[in-house]
Design brief:
four-stranded parallel beta sheet, 329 residues
């Protein structure tokens, strides 16, 4: 009889343990499924619409979809364009904060600054930034130590000035056309001036506050300079059709730091590969979202791939000839 009681007790204990394991496993499965069903909210703020920044976004979108299409996680990308208005950047950033986005990707310096000013908790991946330290996004590129990392949009300014000098060997005075409120432009212009100084060339600043001032600025400079150099400036980039019109009418060659600007109204350039920049930006976002790396330790990097771009139509209209050694280089 005692034996039977022991057997019954053991059987009851086994059933209890099996039941508890089943319940525990069911709860774990529910938690796992809930985790898998969680939608990752990605807010993307783009400063302005033009080819370079659009290519960055395309690279970001493609790389994120490529990764998460092969994952059991879902993403929702909330893309907003500020249309060149800083106030819109603030509104967009505030929306992403209110929505409790899992990450903010900011394309362009004003978009990044707005996000940084509004949150210290949500990870921010900045892309297309010319001078992250000057823009007060971080104090150290190799180890940001804040909730910000990303990619630097720094064209090979020295190579571009050398290219201009080779194309226009008789140009002695260069006009530097840029928006005075864009931090990216200020840093690139500083680099351009240093290179022009080393070549013994003169230069004057042709600064504008908005797109409406570009036409008059170029016309008034036409008899003062031999050529114009423009950095990757959002205001100038968005007005390249007007720049091209004046460039042609005044026979005033323009060298731009960006491929899309060159295709519309520049002459020649070495340009950053913006699609590759977008891909690199997305990879950094994935590292943060997947917990692969702590954002505070992810370096802000440059893209090392450049494209040689020629606007043959503008070269012909200006009556210029591209020296053979440019192609050789």
């Amino acid at each position: 009889m005692k034996k039977n009681h022991i057997i019954i007790f053991i059987l009851i204990a086994v059933f209890v343990l099996v039941g508890a394991f089943g319940i525990s496993r069911h709860e774990n499965d529910k938690k796992t499924n809930a985790s898998n069903d969680k939608v990752i909210k990605i807010g993307v703020s783009q400063m302005i619409e033009h080819e370079a920044l659009d290519l960055i976004y395309k690279g970001i979108e493609d790389e994120l979809n490529k990764y998460y299409n092969n994952s059991n996680k879902k993403i929702v990308i909330d893309y907003k364009n500020a249309q060149g208005d800083t106030a819109n950047c603030n509104t967009i950033a505030q929306k992403f904060v209110n929505d409790k986005s899992d990450i903010i990707i900011a394309i362009g310096t004003p978009a990044a600054q707005s996000a940084v000013n509004l949150t210290k908790d949500i990870p921010i991946i900045a892309s297309g930034i010319g001078d992250p330290i000057g823009a007060k996004l971080v104090t150290n590129l190799n180890k940001p130590n804040v909730n910000v990392t990303g990619t630097i949009n720094l064209p090979p300014i020295e190579k571009q000035i050398e290219l201009m000098h080779t194309l226009l060997p008789n140009a002695k005075k260069i006009g530097l056309l840029y928006c005075s409120s864009e931090i990216n432009s200020l840093y690139q212009i500083k680099l351009a001036k240093e290179k022009l100084d080393s070549l013994g060339l003169e230069y004057i600043d042709l600064t504008v506050a908005n797109a409406n001032e570009i036409q008059q600025m170029m016309i008034s400079a036409a008899d003062k300079v031999d050529a114009i150099f423009s950095p990757t400036d959002n205001i100038i980039a968005n007005s390249m059709a007007n720049v091209a019109m004046i460039e042609e009418s005044e026979k005033l060659p323009v060298i731009c730091a960006d491929a899309s600007m060159t295709k519309i109204g520049g002459t020649v350039t070495y340009s950053v590969n913006y699609y590759d920049m977008g891909v690199l930006t997305a990879k950094k976002a994935i590292e943060v979202l997947e917990g692969i790396k702590d954002i505070k330790n992810i370096p802000i990097e440059t893209v090392d791939s450049y494209n040689f771009v020629v606007n043959t139509n503008m070269i012909n209209r200006l009556g210029l000839t591209i020296p053979s050694d440019i192609y050789m280089n």
